[in-house]
Amino acid sequence: MSFLGLGQAVDSVRGFLKKDREEEGGIDISAVQAQVAAAAQRARDVAAETISAAEAKAKADAEATNAAAAVARYEKLQSVADAAYLIAAADGTVSVAETSKLSDGLSKHLGEEVGASAGDLLEVSKQRIAYQGQKGLAEAIAEAFPDVTVRKAVFMVAAGISWLDRGIGVKEGLALQALSGAFGIPMNEMHQLLGAAKKA
User: pTM for the full model?
Assistant: First the structure.
């Protein structure tokens, strides 16, 4: 048996491919190529959709993380306002003038962190103390600040705001004791913090 040359081999392959095409009743090569191209495009589209879905999920996850961080930040800010309101409401009422001073105090101590939202924060504080009571709200504030150092800072801010009004009376003192108790701050240290807040 003699070996075919390359040219003959090519002709032979073309020959049987042509024969198969003819036996199948004729195959439109351009149509086949179009089908292959369409299949390839579909594969690319699916891949692109998969990437887009992954990107969309990543974006959604990032937005959810940012939203959770914003909520956590707001809750801490609200808890500081709650601490100040807790003391102001010790006598059972918070007048419009007291609310205004509380608002000014929050803005003074927390600046841009509060911005123009001090009034809204205090309105929420009013609802919280009405629902939770002094002890319950003090415990809720403590839960928002598990770190001891941060608790002392929050206590001082609340005390500092308290000094802005008429000073700290008996009822305000009891409210401060309730807050310091929830924070786990010893009595002698509480008085030191109050003194430091008054001087600030």
Answer: 0.67
pLDDT at 7 over 60: no
Residue 116 region by backbone torsions, left for phi larger than 0, else alpha for psi between -120 and 50, else beta: alpha
**CATH number corresponding to 78-199:** 1.10.3680
| C-alpha torsion angle, residues 176, 80, 197, 135 (rounded to 10) | 10
184, HSE (Cβ side, Cα atoms, 13 Å): 9
Quick one: tokens of 49? 């959709």
Structure tokens of 7? Answer: 């040219």
**In this structure, which amino acid lies at residue 15?**
G
Helix (H, G, I), strand (E, B) or coil at 135: helix
Between these two residues, 64 and 86, which has the higher pLDDT value? Answer: 86
Q: Tokens 């020959």, residue?
A: 15
Q: What amino acid occupies position 105?
A: G
Amino acid code (one letter) for 4? L
Contact (Cβ atoms closer than 8 angstroms) between residue 194 and residue 159: yes
**What's the rounded Cα separation, in Å, for the pair 73 and 181?**
24
Which pairs from 35-39 meet CB under 8 Å and 24+ separation?
Answer: none
| Residue whose C-alpha is closest to residue 105's, from 47, 55, 162, 150 | 162
